[in-house]
Specification:
single chain; 416 residues; alpha/beta; eight-stranded mixed β-sheet; three-stranded antiparallel β-sheet; 11 strands; 29% helix; 14% strand; globular
Amino acid sequence: MKISLFKLKCFSVLPVMLVCMTVLSAQPRVKTGIEVLKERNFDILKGKKIGLVTNPTGVDCNLVSTVDILFNAPGVELVALFGPEHGVRGDIHAGDKIENSVDGKTGLTVHSLYGSTRKATPEMLKGIDVLVYDIQDIGCRSFTYISTLGLLMEAAAENDIEIVVLDRPNPLGGRNIEGNIVEDGFISFVSQFKIPYIYGMTCGELALMLNEENMLGKKCKLTVVPMEGWTRDMMYDETGLPWVLPSPHIPSGETAYYYPATGILGELSYVSIGVGYTLPFQLIAAEWIDAAEFADAMNALELPGWEFRPVFIKPFYGRGKGETLQGVQLYVTDRSVAKLTEPQFYAVQVMAELYPEKKLSDHADKSRFNMFDKVCGSDKIRKGLLKNHRFEDIKDFWYKDVDAFRNLSSKYYLYW
C-alpha cells in the first residue's frame, strides 16, 4: 500500500487573513489541514465519493464546519458522515452511546462510531472512495479520538479505501512525552495503541507512525495534509486559532494542559478534580482536605513549572455535588519545564502524609480499578502507588519508555 504526503506550495496569505479577521483580531499563525486543503481547491478529493469523520472541532479559521465546507465544495461529493464520541455536531454527552442518524443540516447519513460498533463496517463504507478525518485532539492517549482514528485506518485498509487526515495542532506541543507504553492486556478504547500517555505528536504524525510501523496490522492508503506555521514548541494559545471544545469538560485550550495533570487520579472517584465545577481538571479537592495546609505542602515540593493555590468549591454535579470541598487549584507557570502528569501522583503522596486516615489505598473506588489500569496502560502504576503512596516508587516505570518512543516517533515528525 502506498503512503503520500500532501505537498505544500507558497500562497498569498492576504485572502485568508481577511476571512479570519471576522473571528480573530489577527491572522492565525497556523493554517490547519482544512485551510491548506481549501487553498488547493480540494484537488485530492475531486471526483471521489467522500466519507467524513469529524465533530464540532473540525472547523476552518472562520469557525465554518468541515462538514459544510466539503458539502458545498465544488467537485467534491460528500456522501456520508461518521460520528465519534460526542457526535458529529457535539450533541452527545461523554460516554453516551450514539445511534445512526441523519444530519439535520445536510441530510447526510451519520454513522455512529461510538455505539454498537467503534469501527466502521463494510456496510457503512459501501460506495465511499475516501475517508477524511478532521478532529482536534488534546495530546493524551486516553482521549478517544485518536482511538477512532486508528480503527478508521484499520477499516480503510480492510476495505481498500483511501484515508486523508487533515492535521491540527497538538495543544500540549510536540516535545513533551510522558508515561509508559501500553502493555499487552491493557489495550482498550482509552489506550488503543502502544504509545505513552502524552505522546508529543499531531494526529497526522501519529497516523503516519501507526501506518508505517505496522501498529494496526495491514497498512492503509494514507495521505496527511500538514499544517502550515506550526512548530513543536508551540502551544495552542500561540497558534492564533479559535478553540472549539472537543468535549464538554475541555472548554478551553488551557484545559488541555490540566487534563493529564488530574485525569488519571479522577478515574478513582477519590477526590474532585473539578469536573462538575467551573474548573474541570484544574483542581484537586475533597471534604476532608484543609486547603491552606494542602497548598503549602504541594508548593513545598517545588515541582518545576507548577504552583498551587488554596481553593474552596461546591460542585454542581459529580464527585462532591452540593458539598463544600477544599483543595488546591493547579497553575502551570512554565510550560517548558512542567511535567504535566506528575501533580496527581505527588498529590496522592501529600494527602497520605497529611491525612493518613484518608489514604487512597483505603478510599479509592475499587470498582474503578479496571478503568484506572486501562488509562495507565498497566496495573503496575496502581499497585505501586497504592503500596506506599509515593511517586518515586513508580516514577522509573512511568518514564521508562520515553526515550525509545521519542527516537521512534521522531522519524514521522512533519514539523520542527
